[in-house]
Design goal:
Largest sheet: 6 strands, antiparallel
Oligomer: single chain
Strand order of the largest sheet: 1-2-3-12-5-10
Structural class: alpha+beta
Helix content: 10-25%
Distance between the termini: 29 Å
Order of helices and strands: HHHEEEEEEEEEEEEEH
Number of helices: 4
Strand content: 25-35%
Shape: globular
Number of strands: 13
Radius of gyration: 18 Å
Length: 232
C-alpha cells in the first residue's frame, strides 16, 4: 500500500468515528515524531500494539479486501508488565470489503455491530488439518445458541454480536447497500504476529511504499520506532 493511500484512509476513519460519536484515545492523534520524542512511558503502546492498523492482506485492493482497526487495549501473554487477559478493538468495515477467511488458535472473540450498516459473517469449522469442514457450526449470538450449516452467512444488524471461539473460520464484510459498519471486538489477548491462520496464505500486515510522510503511525510501524529508540 502507498502511504498516501493509508493517510487518506486514516482521514476518512477519523471522520467516521466522529460521526459515530466514538472518541478514540490520545495516541490516535499523535504526530509520528511524538513516538520517538517520548521515553519508556509509552512502552506499553509499542509492545502490545495500541493504535492504528490498516491492511490490504497483501492483495493490493483495500476497497475489496481490507480492514481498518484501532486497538484500544491489549495485553501480552507471558509478560508480567502487561497483565491484561483481554483486548478491545474498534474496526471500520466498508460495504463488500472482505476480511479473508481465517481463524485464531488462541483468541476467542466477540464481534459486535456498534452501528452503521449490517455486518455479514461467513462461518466454517476447521478440520484437523486446518481446512474448511462441512460440519454444522454452533455459535452464540447475544447469548442465544444457534446451530447452522457449514458456510452459513450470519447478518449482524446494529447492536447484535456473535462469539467466535478458537479455530472457528470466519470471513466478514459490510452488507452491500446498507453503509459502512462500525464494528467492535472484545477478545482474549490479541497477537496478530502469531495467532492468525488464513485459509489462503496471506500476510497480516501490508508492505508500505513511502510516497509521502505518515499522518499517523500504524502498529506495523512500531518496530522501526523501537529500533530507533534503542539506537539513541
Amino acid at each position: 500500500m502507498k502511504r498516501s493511500e493509508i493517510n487518506a484512509i486514516l482521514r476518512d476513519a477519523k471522520t467516521f468515528f466522529t460521526q459515530m460519536k466514538f472518541a478514540l484515545p490520545p495516541v490516535a492523534h499523535w504526530h509520528p515524531a511524538e513516538f520517538t520524542a517520548r521515553g519508556t512511558e509509552i512502552d506499553e503502546i509499542l509492545d502490545v500494539g495500541i493504535g492504528w492498523d490498516i491492511t490490504d492482506f497483501g492483495l493490493s485492493d483495500f476497497a475489496h479486501h481490507g480492514l481498518l482497526l484501532f486497538t484500544i487495549r491489549n495485553g501480552k501473554c507471558g509478560d508480567p508488565r502487561y497483565p491484561k487477559p483481554y483486548a478491545e478493538k474498534a474496526m471500520i468495515v466498508r460495504e463488500a470489503q472482505i476480511t479473508p477467511m481465517h481463524f485464531h488458535w488462541q483468541k476467542a472473540e466477540d464481534i459486535i455491530n456498534r452501528g452503521g450498516g449490517n455486518l455479514v459473517i461467513k462461518l466454517y469449522n476447521a478440520t484437523d488439518d486446518d481446512r474448511l469442514a462441512d460440519t454444522p457450526v454452533t455459535v452464540s449470538m447475544d447469548g442465544v445458541r444457534h446451530t447452522l450449516p457449514a458456510g452459513s452467512e450470519v447478518v449482524l444488524t446494529p447492536g447484535e454480536s456473535i462469539t467466535l471461539p478458537q479455530r472457528l473460520y470466519h470471513s466478514f464484510w459490510g452488507e452491500p447497500g446498507n453503509g459502512t459498519v462500525f464494528v467492535g471486538e472484545v477478545s482474549a489477548v490479541n497477537d496478530d504476529h502469531h495467532d492468525n491462520r488464513f485459509l489462503d496464505e496471506l500476510p497480516r500486515f501490508p508492505g508500505i511504499v513511502e510516497d509521502e510522510p505518515p499522518l499517523h503511525l500504524l502498529v506495523s510501524d512500531y518496530p522501526a520506532v523501537q529500533a530507533a529508540r534503542a539506537a539513541r
